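Morning F.,

Quick status update on the modeling queue. The single chain you submitted on Monday has been processed. Sequence for confirmation:
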Amino acid sequence: MTHQPTVLTPDVLIVGGGPAGLTAAAGLADRHAGHVLVVDREETAGGIPRHSDHTGYGLRDLRRVLTGPAYARHLVRRAARAGAEIRTRTMVTGWADEHTADVTGPDGRYRIRARAVVLATGARERPRSARRIPGDRPDGVHTTGQLQNLVHLHHRPVGERAVIVGAELVSWSAARTLREAGCTPALMISQYPKAESYAAFTAAGRTALRVPVATRTRVTRIIGRGRCRAVEIEHLDTGRRTTVACDTVVFTGDWIPDHELARTAGLDLDAGTRGPLTDTALRTSRPGVFAAGNLLHPVDTADVAALDGRHVAGQVIEHLHGRTPPAEGVRLLADAPFRWIAPQILRPGDPAPARDRLLLWTDAFVRLPKVTVRQDARTLVRRTLAWPAAPGRVFRVPAGILDGVSPTGGPVHIGLG
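C-alpha cells below.
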C-alpha cells in the first residue's frame, strides 16, 4: 500500500522568509487573507540581514534605520504578530502539481497546496567557481554571504589579510565584516573605471576602513595550497600583472537569483534577470503564482525587497477575491547598456510597479542618463534624469515614462540616447 503524504492547505504559501517574504506575510495576514504560511530553509527567518551586522536597514520601508539582525528580528515579529505561520528548517524540494509544493522539514516530508503562492527566494552572489577564476583551490575563499555567516553567526576567525573582489555596496559591507573579525582588507578591486558603489560610500570606506581600490583590474589567478597565500591581478588597460599577498579572498556582488524553484515549476524566466518574468502586479506566467524581492531584480537593498513584499500582498488579495488579470500585455525590453529591466510586462488596468519605479541594471557609467522609450519604431519619451546610471547598483526610473505606451502595440524598448 502506497503511503500518501500529508497535505497542508493554507490560503497562501510564501517560499522564503527574507524581507520580501516576511513583509508580504505581514501584509496578507493583516488583511485577513486566511492562513498565511511562510517556509524558510534556514534555522531562523530573516534572510541576509540576519548576518549583516551593520546599520542601514529599514529606511524605505520602516522609515527608521536598524542593524541587519535587528531589522530581521523586527520583520519576523511583525509577520508572526499579524498571524502568519513561519516554519524554518523547511525546504521546498519540488512541485507535485502547479500549486502543490513538495516540502521537507523537521516533521518529515509532506505537501503544501495553496490557493496562491509567492516565491521570495532572493538572490546569491556567484562563487569563485561560477566566475571561472583559475588557479589553486585553497581555503580562505568566500562570498560576502559566506563570510558574514562565518563571522556573525558562527563567530569563526577568517584570516589576517584579505582581497575583496568587487566594489559595490555589498563589498564595503564585506570590508567592515573583515575589520570586525580582525582581518585587514588590503585591497578592493573593480573591473570598472571607478568603484561601483555610491561615491559617498566609496569615500567613507576608503577613509574609515582604509581600503585602497584598484579600478580596471581583475583577478587572474588564486595562489595557495591548503590556505590561500596570494592572488594575481591584471590591469585591464595595460595588461600588467602583479601578485598581492593575502590569506583571504572575498568575492562580492555578481548576483544571480535563487531561481531553482521557479525554473522547476516551468515558469517563464527573463533572460536578463534570470528570475521569473512578471508584470507590474508581480504575477508570473502561472495563474496564482507570484514573485517578489531579489528573485526578480538581483540585487537591490533589503528595504526595496520588503516594499516588493508589501506590493505583492495587495495583488495576492485581489487574486484570492477572484479578480481575473488582463489576458494581454506589452513586453518591456532593456536595450544596451542596460542588462535587464524589472518588471517586464505592462498590462492595461494593472497597478504601477512597487514604489512607482522601473528597475534597470546598467553595464556602463552614464553621469546624466537620457532615458528613451521606443515602441513600433517611434520614440515616445526622451527624458534626462538627474541621477547617474552606474554598474553594481539598481538604476531607478519613474514608471510614468510608460504613460504613452500603446497597450495594443509592439514591444517597448527602454534604453539611453
